[in-house]
């Protein structure tokens, strides 16, 4: 297994890594520390349907982002994108000491093997090298795997934006902060 930083031109291959959000529970937050977990119908969402290489190229400025990938015998099985010092990424709030974990994904057959942790370790190293003090991480209240992973690595839930997504009124945006 190899984890390496790749050129921005690799973005077209990166975005093809399948990413599915699977859940049968939703976190309902009353506050940052108070929530209930509700059972829901088992759901699988193909996140690639909502992503556009053209939109990503419009937002992600080459000199402000880095792409890390995980390869096993030349097969692309996962990756992470980190953004620093970018005027086009709203989550930075013009605070250039913040980095944003724009995306992290691992093919289903390789999940649960520590690959996300290895990718996030590269994100941390890169963010520190760029003099960032924290990494901002976004997920949704219907992504229990992501919530569990971010909590496990030590990120703290800092912001909840109820009904944040126009087309998905039942989804709340969760912003975690990982202090470097």
Could you explain how this protein is built, in words?
With about 180 residues, the chain is α+β, with helices and mostly antiparallel strands. It has one domain: Aminopeptidase, CATH 3.40.630. It contains 4 helices and 9 strands; from the N terminus they run βαββαβββαβαββ. The protein has a 7-stranded mixed β-sheet, covered by helices on one side. The chain is globular, with a radius of gyration of 16 Å. It starts with a strand and ends with a strand. The model has no long low-confidence stretch (mean pLDDT about 90).
Question: What attributes characterize this protein structure?
Answer:
two-stranded antiparallel sheet; single chain; alpha+beta; 180 residues; 9 strands; Aminopeptidase; 7-stranded mixed beta sheet; globular
Kindly state the number of beta strands: 9
Helix fraction? 10-25%
Which stretches are low in confidence, meaning pLDDT under 50 for 5 or more residues running? Answer: none
- Give, in spatial order, the strands making up the sheet with the most strands: 1-4-5-6-7-9-8
* CATH homologous superfamily caption: Gcn5-related N-acetyltransferase (GNAT)
- What pattern of helices and strands is seen along the backbone? EHEEHEEEHEHEE
Radius of gyration: 16 Å
Distance between the termini: 26 Å
How many domains make up the coordinates?
Answer: 1
What is the residue-averaged pLDDT?
92
State the CATH architecture: 3-Layer(aba) Sandwich
The CATH topology name reads: Aminopeptidase
CATH class: Alpha Beta
The biggest beta sheet reads:
7 strands, mixed
Classify the secondary structure makeup into a structural class: alpha+beta
Count of runs of 4 or more consecutive helical residues: 4
Percent strand equals: 35-45%
Overall form: globular
């Amino acid at each position: 297994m190899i984890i390496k930083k790749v050129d921005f031109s690799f973005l077209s291959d990166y975005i093809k890594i399948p990413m599915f959000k699977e859940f049968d529970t939703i976190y309902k937050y009353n506050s940052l520390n108070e929530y209930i977990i509700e059972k829901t119908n088992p759901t699988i969402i193909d996140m690639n349907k909502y992503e556009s290489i053209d939109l990503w190229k419009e937002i992600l400025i080459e000199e402000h982002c880095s792409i890390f990938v995980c390869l096993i015998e030349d097969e692309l099985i996962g990756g992470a994108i980190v953004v620093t010092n970018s005027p086009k990424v709203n989550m930075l709030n013009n605070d250039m000491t913040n980095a944003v974990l724009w995306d992290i994904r691992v093919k289903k057959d390789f999940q649960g093997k520590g690959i996300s942790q290895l990718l996030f370790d590269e994100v941390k190293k890169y963010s520190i090298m760029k003099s960032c003090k924290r990494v901002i991480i976004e997920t949704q209240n219907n992504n229990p795997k992501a919530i569990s992973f971010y909590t496990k690595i030590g990120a703290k839930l800092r912001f909840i934006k109820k009904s944040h997504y126009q087309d998905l009124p039942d989804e709340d945006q969760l912003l975690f902060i990982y202090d470097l």
